[in-house]
Amino acid sequence: MNTVIEVPSSEVDHEALTANETYRVALLDSPSSTEPATQQEPESIAVRGTMDPSSAGPPIDEGEVRDVTIETVGDQGDGIAKVERGYVVIVPGAQPGDEPTVEIEQVQENVAFASIVDTDPRAL
């Protein structure tokens, strides 16, 4: 389901968005500053504390082999792919649109580095 959301121009950094482009956003519910705090807040904190431990940390492991889609190129010229939960995988030598099979070599909290083990056959 696609929903169109109007964003006031005062809330947008100039040149950060392009007209007629599609962007993914998250809408988070939070109490307004005029609403009094309720007793539900401690309960919601307790619920967050019982999250599935498998969802914590990076969604990939070192040595894992997987197919990725390169979305863009970083400042150093490396391909950048995003996997589960928006986790970034940097792939040297890859270009936007490539769909290589990569091996994850190094995993950090918010980014992983991978090498190409099999190139996208459509790129040949």
From TrEMBL:
**Domain TRAM intervals:** 59-118
Region Disordered, annotated ranges: 29-65
Q: Which InterPro entries match?
A: NA-bd_OB-fold, TRAM_dom
Keyword Mitochondrion assigned: no
**Keyword entries, A-Z:** Plasmid
- Bias kind Polar residues: ranges: 30-42
Protein name as it appears in the record: Deoxyribonuclease/rho motif-related TRAM
Specify the species.
Halanaeroarchaeum sulfurireducens
